[in-house]
């Protein structure tokens, strides 16, 4: 067996240059159907535990930890990451504030 046959088995060989728009469309439709099928199977299968989404506080703590780490690095990527983490923190705070409900101060004052 040659190296070309080993790296490109005939079962996986595709000629993408001869693909028509209809072929590409059908591939996308098939992929969406497969994803929907997996979603349905995942919803009906209760054997696998679902991992809870991190809270706002946990996400902010992780962002602050990464900001502390990147603070002393002298790298353009680290600087960009530090800026993005700051923006992430602002968005999390904004989203959390938008989810709050108005309340009246009189609800918290106990009668004497």
Textual characterization of the structure:
61% of the residues lie in helices and 0% in strands. It has 112 residues and is mostly helical. The longest helix is centred in the first third of the chain and has 24 residues, at 21-44. The model has no long low-confidence stretch (mean pLDDT 77).
Task: Give the SSE map.
Layout lengths: L2 H5 L13 H24 L11 H16 L4 H23 L14
Helix pairs in contact: 3-4
Q: What descriptors fit this protein?
A:
112 residues, mainly alpha, 4 helices, 0% strand, extended
Instruction: List unreliable stretches of 5+ residues.
Output: none
Percent strand: under 5%
**Judging from the principal axes of the Cα atoms, what is the shape?**
extended
Order of helices and strands: HHHH
Please provide a brief summary of the model.
The protein has 112 residues and is an all-alpha fold. The chain has four helices and no strands.
